[in-house]
Amino acid sequence: MMLSIFVFWTLVEICYSSPDLAEFECLESKCWCETMGPLIVNIECSSDLDFSVPLHNLIINQTINYFLIKNVIFAEHKNFFSNLEISELAFDNVQLSSMGNLTFKGIRNLKKLMFKNSILTGIQNGTFSHLDLVDIDFKNCSIDDKFMNENHASLNELSHIAHFTMSQNKLSHLNKNWFKNLKIYFLLNLSFNMITKIDSNFFRSMTALERLNLKFNHLSGCLDQIALLPLRASLVRLILSSNQLSCVPVFDRYPNLRILDLSNNSIETLDNNVFRNLISLNILNLNHNKIKYICSDCFTKSLLYLRLEDNYLKRIPSIEPVSSLILLDLRNQNGHLEKLSNFQFDRRDSLLHLKIHLEQNDLSEFAPRSFCSRFGSYLDNFTLSHRTFVNMFKVNRCLFGQLNYKSSYTVRLFVDNGHLIESKHLDGICTCDFVNFIKLSNVLISGIKCGEFECQSNGSSYFDECVREKIYSYPSLDMSYLLFNLELTAAEAHVLTTSPPYIGDSG
Ligand SMILES: *[C@@H]1O[C@H](CO)[C@@H](O)[C@H](O)[C@H]1NC(C)=O
Ligand SMILES: *[C@@H]1O[C@H](CO)[C@@H](O)[C@H](O)[C@H]1NC(C)=O
Ligand SMILES: *[C@@H]1O[C@H](CO)[C@@H](O)[C@H](O)[C@H]1NC(C)=O
Ligand SMILES: *[C@@H]1O[C@H](CO)[C@@H](O)[C@H](O)[C@H]1NC(C)=O
Ligand SMILES: *[C@@H]1O[C@H](CO)[C@@H](O)[C@H](O)[C@H]1NC(C)=O
Ligand SMILES: *[C@@H]1O[C@H](CO)[C@@H](O)[C@H](O)[C@H]1NC(C)=O
Ligand SMILES: *[C@@H]1O[C@H](CO)[C@@H](O)[C@H](O)[C@H]1NC(C)=O
Ligand SMILES: *[C@@H]1O[C@H](CO)[C@@H](O)[C@H](O)[C@H]1NC(C)=O
């Protein structure tokens, strides 16, 4: 033993003088240590844990930053860690006999405890009562309802904890007793279980919880909101993706909820302004559902990101009130989306540029003012399919001029078929008239290759034609509002004041 301590200290000295040699055998040559700084080590042990003396005789005056015990059967763990200062303790693929009040006895300053891919026989009362953890993780430990019914008393000894993870287990019916006194105040991660039912009092003690992750579970039917109500005041993120929910209720008031993820469920319709009380919602993910219908005014003003990829929408939902929106993802509506209406992407009171994804849809019908704005809202990068692009040209090439009514700002149009499209697939679009028209409209197109050709002039008959058609009347427009809110160029102001007000076409 003297010899091993001697070797250990010698190695520590070598490590201090040579930062390159930071890893060395330690603890009677059974583990690996890594120096993290003066008197701070990481330790990894993955063979038999029988030491001839208590561990604290081998690790003198050192703080263990991270202690990993891996791939072992760990039966004799009583007093194993006593008198050690450990910040983070992790078990990976460890078979632990029933834990009791001596397992973590005498451990100092433990903040994070992780059991991963491990087999836990049981957790007796008193195992955690003397710990002051911030973070506990039971990922993939085959924990089922029976285990929880038998061992929840010891989990409740944790009382105040920031992060609690019990993902990749076999929980199915969340029982109201399990976390009765557990005040998790930041994150509860119960993802990748088999949860079908949550007792209405399950979250009762968690009135400060900010993030709840329930993705990849078996919640089905209409989301039952009752269990979630204790979280109303605190919840910031709610992740319910990859369940089998077919409908969502009118959400109660969750004044701080900013992220709601309902992606990869089976939601078909969004009725009754279900989100109207979510006044702080910034990110709403509804990708990979079966949504056919969305109520008008379904989305709140605060929304920044609206994701609707892979649904069955025939119509694009109204985003007129959603003044903060910066991303609208409508990729792949499974062949249902064919038509754009007038002022389709216009937003009231908006100062933000909107990025739009419309690729994997082949649109063929375009109302004459599809991309026009009544309220002076701007578009940003706009992505669409090759077919849609060609159809726009065929139906009404002035549509391209509508993408950017404010000529000092460039709008980027991405034609996305996964590869660069050569001019032979562009049905005669590649002419000087078109190229100059796009330039004059201050639009940049990526994803197509018109090849090299020289143009005699920089003018465009398309441009002239579209400018001639620029003046439309739009009866519901409130002009004072427009003039007040927009920075108008002289030319635009002229159009507005001398003709029935409307802006949005080219230039
Ligand atoms: C450990 O720390 C104590 C108190 O600071 C000191 O007296 C002792 O010499 C240290 N032991 C070693 C081996 O450095
Ligand atoms: C530890 O648990 C044993 C039973 O397993 C019990 O007899 C003992 O009183 C407990 N000690 C403490 C400090 O709770
Ligand atoms: C879960 O843990 C077991 C060992 O208990 C392991 O064999 C399996 O690969 C782990 N699963 C995952 C998804 O990590
Ligand atoms: C553990 O504690 C709970 C509540 O503190 C108590 O109801 C239960 O009987 C205890 N279990 C054992 C085995 O002592
Ligand atoms: C929750 O657990 C899952 C699975 O273990 C993991 O992938 C995910 O990153 C965790 N989420 C958070 C927010 O910790
Ligand atoms: C969607 O959820 C199903 C299970 O309901 C899962 O098998 C699939 O991998 C998930 N898809 C995505 C994209 O997450
Ligand atoms: C728009 O596209 C350009 C060029 O690809 C890129 O640099 C920029 O970050 C994009 N803007 C947004 C908001 O995605
Ligand atoms: C077009 O070309 C003419 C002369 O070649 C030039 O004066 C004019 O500024 C150009 N216009 C634009 C918009 O580039």
From TrEMBL:
A Pfam family that this protein carries is LRR_8
The answer to whether the entry has keyword Cytoplasm is no
Q: Give the UniProt keywords, A-Z.
A: Leucine-rich repeat, Repeat, Signal
Kindly indicate whether the keyword Repeat belongs to this entry: yes
**Which residues constitute the signal peptide according to the record?**
1-17
Query: InterPro entries, alphabetically?
Result: Leu-rich_rpt, Leu-rich_rpt_typical-subtyp, LRR_dom_sf, SLRP
GO cellular component labels:
extracellular space
Quote the protein name from its UniProt record.
Answer: Slit-like protein
Q: Tell me the organism.
A: Brachionus plicatilis (Marine rotifer)
